[in-house]
Each structure stands twice: as C-alpha cells, then as structure tokens.
Amino acid sequence: MLVICPSCKKRYKLDEKKLNPKPKVKLRCPNCGHIFEVNNPLYNEKINEDDTTQIKKDKNAEEGLTLPEDKIIYLYVIKGPRSGYKYKVTKPRVIVGRGSQADLIIPDLEVSRQHFSLEISENKTILRDLNSTNGTYIDGEKVSSVKIEDRTEIQIGQSAILYMESTERDF
C-alpha cells in the first residue's frame, strides 16, 4: 500500500500485513518523524450481518440474480498491488474497489472505493462501472456496462483482474 506523509509529502510503501485486523493504524514517517493515522483499505467492518444478508438476498432475488449451480467463479488479480490473489465469488452481486465496503478490495490509489460491480445470473455476468474516477477497461476500451465471458481481463487503475468461470471438475 502506498502511504503519503501529510507533513513532508514523502511517499513510501507500507507492508499491508502491519494493518490487519485494525481499521486504522498510527504510523511514523521514516523521513520526518511525523506521526499520523491511515485507514486500512483491507479492513471489513462487521455490521449487523443477519440484517444485511437478508436484505441483500431479497434484493438479489427481486433482480433475478443467482449464482449458477454448475459453475465456480473466481476473480484473479494478475497485476497490481494484490497480484496473485484469488477471490472466489460466493454471491450474485460483487463490488470491486479499494474501500472497506467492497467485496474484493484492491489497495490501488487509482481505484475508486466502489469501482465496478459484477451482477451474476444463471446465464450471464454483467460488469457495471460504478462511476469510477479513472474508468474500467476491457481490451483497452473504457466500458460502463458490458456482458463479460470466461477469461475476460478487466483493467482498473494499475491493476488487472481476470474473470474466470468453470465447472467444479475443471478446478
């Protein structure tokens, strides 16, 4: 994660392992010694999960979103700060971004807090850009809403994410 000292404006890389599981962490700038606090982009706040889970299930059912039973869907981060990370999709609507409300958190300063969503139904997956600042790209083209297929590469900020779907036996 890239951190910028608010006092001297020096940029340096912070090991993300030092942040978990805290929502905020105090840091001392190695350049000027200034102590400051940063939010952890990987921290997921625990809110009343019973209520939110039921609301999301009802909303997804209304919109016809259901995960296909015969497929497993993964998002692989193939470039950027979380390169090598594999996210298994377990719900029909997934938010990708750098904010704590995102399902897949990408700690890239060029990625919006809620950058794009995937809406999955039995026979298709729709990628929707969520009015991100820097845009969502597929094959070098900026997209706002598009149907995506297996092995689609999605570019956001300095990160690239590979959408993969397959049957259980393929994995």
Structure commentary:
The protein is mainly beta. It contains one helix and 15 strands; from the N terminus they run ββββαβββββββββββ. The protein has one helix at 49-62; strands at residues 2-4, 11-13, 24-28, 35-39, 72-79, 86-88, 93-97, 104-105, 116-120, 125-129, 136-138, 141-143, 145-148, 152-156, 159-166. The strands form four sheets. Strands 6-5-15-14-11-12 form a six-stranded antiparallel beta sheet, with no helix packed on it. The protein has a five-stranded mixed beta sheet with strand order 8-7-9-10-13, with no helix packed on it. Strands 1-2 form a two-stranded antiparallel ribbon. Strand 14 and strand 15 form a beta hairpin. The longest helix is centred in the first third of the chain and has 14 residues, at 49-62. The radius of gyration is 18 Å and the shape is elongated.
Order of helices and strands: EEEEHEEEEEEEEEEE
Q: Sum up the overall morphology in one term.
A: elongated
Mind summarizing the main beta sheet?
Answer: 6 strands, antiparallel
Q: What is the rounded distance between the termini?
A: 31 Å
Category by helix and strand content: mainly beta
